[in-house]
Amino acid sequence: MSxxxxxxxxxxxxxxxxxxxxxxxxxxxxxTLRAILSEIKTLVPQxxxxxxxxxxxNRGDQASYDNLKAILAEAELDMPVLFAxxxxxxRDGFYPAMLGxxxxxxxxxxxxxxxxxVHIIVLDSSVPEKVGGDFEPGQIEWLKAELSNHADxxxxxxxxxxxxxxxxxxxxxxxxxxxxxxxxRQAVEGKHVIGILSGHIHFDRVSNWYGIPVVVGIGQHAATxxxxxxxxxxxxxxxxxxxxMLRPSGLSITFAPQPAERRExxxxxxxxxxxxxxxxxxxxxxxxxxx
Length: 291
Known about the structure:
Blueprint: E1 5-10, H1 29-40, E2 50-53, H2 62-75, E3 81-84, H3 91-99, E4 111-115, E5 118-122, H4 139-148, E6 155-158, H5 178-188, E7 193-198, E8 205-209, E9 212-216, E10 223-224, E11 232-236, E12 240-247, E13 250-257, E14 264-269, H6 273-290
Parallel strand pairs: 1-2, 2-3, 5-6, 6-7, 7-9
Antiparallel strand pairs: 1-12, 4-5, 8-9, 10-11, 11-14, 12-13
Helix pairs in contact: 1-2, 2-3, 4-5
């Protein structure tokens, strides 16, 4: 690659339905997205593309995706936006609202595109009714075939759940499963993968995963207090996005935090996590049943 390619990484948009009260939505994510999109339009040079690595909505209902689609249309962006799905997304809400697709709406949303000489591969790591990520049958085979395409081009992988950094089953909620991570490692070994872009954990983190940079972003809903992780999850006001630059020397990432006073929005200990997830799933199921 002889020129520098600029792109933007968004994650964890958590857009809601303005007509429905959502007790699990802790900030005005629609306003945050509008502010970030407005800021992106001022960047020089303009990004060639935007990737949004999952949790596009907070509950996965069609009305929330309709809201997301309207905000994007209002922004009048001059670059394509590629979407991944996360654990807060629902395929049967995403496909009809965002793609106008009404058949096979339970299938994983895996897709790819070549933009400005970059082969972008988007994997659906979401598993219905689960917090952590994994692959369904056929996804790794699809990935292997896709990695063989455009062999001369640098490849950027986008997926909501980052690969697991340690073989610790207790941490599978925050990442890909250990088995999924190993399958991914074997698939990408020896391929020209220049980075993996993810979200889910709501804090900025860059890791060297078997020689591949793995970039995780805060996102736009809330920021995890990393100093409190020994107790549980404490969510603070805060949002960020990332500006990526693919240079001849490799990938660089610059985080662009949004103004925030870092006040507490919500918190729960690890002991209370199961109860919180149970309540969230019950509330989400109620929303789905009402559609």
